[in-house]
Amino acid sequence: MKANEILNKIKNIVGVELSETKTELAEIVLENGTVLVAESFEAGKAIFIKTEEEEIALPVGEYEYEGKVLVVKEEGLIDSIKEAEAEAEAEEEAETEEVEAKEEVQFVSVEQFNSTIEELKALITELKSETELSEETKEETEEEVVTELSSVKDELVEPIKHNPEEDSKNVLFTIASNRTETTKDRVYNKIFNN
């Protein structure tokens, strides 16, 4: 038996009629000839490219049709539908702003350029002289600090004296005192205790 025959027998036994529901999909044709299908062309609805074999989710991008622009930000979902003229006007405004910004560029005369260069040179020499003065004062202050520290050092530091008697305290270690003493132990005792 085929699957359809089995399904029909089960329907008869149970007494349930299954109705096949077909959804009517709206179609539009883009300017390049691609056919798009959707339940309805509204924001948030699923949209697909119609092909002979199957329907493919519409990739992210903007698509023009019948004077409108279909915007897809997530694959297979309509984000918004705009009027194509409004978008073209926005692009024209952006282009005019760029042209105006380019027109605002001013040219500098040779005299203005040379005077600015002279001002910069004067500033550079002034900064160099200031850094040289600060280096000289830094060297002077370092010398003063060294002389102050050396005089203080002589007053505060006491010489360290070594006392060898403190180190020579006899410290005897007895490890394993209950074991019998070997010849080696006796030799080491003679050597280290003298």
Strand fraction band? 5-15%
Count all strands and give the number.
Answer: 7
Taking all residues together, what is the mean pLDDT?
78
- Give the distance, in angstroms, between the N- and C-terminal Cα atoms: 113 Å
Radius of gyration, Cα only, in angstroms?
49 Å
Order of secondary-structure elements: HEEEEEEEHHHH
What form results from the Cα inertia axes?
flat
What is the structural class?
Answer: alpha+beta
Instruction: Trace the largest sheet across and list its strands.
Output: 1-2-3-4
Low-confidence stretches: none
List keywords for this structure.
194 residues, alpha+beta, four-stranded antiparallel β-sheet, three-stranded antiparallel β-sheet, 5 helices, flat
What does this entry look like structurally?
This protein is α+β, with helices and mostly antiparallel strands. It has a domain at 1-105. Helices cover 48% and strands 15% of the residues. The chain has five helices and seven strands, in the order H-E-E-E-E-E-E-E-H-H-H-H. It has a four-stranded antiparallel β-sheet with strand order 1-2-3-4, with no helix packed on it. Strand 5 (61-65) and strand 6 form a beta hairpin. 3% of the residues are buried. The model has no long low-confidence stretch (mean pLDDT 78).
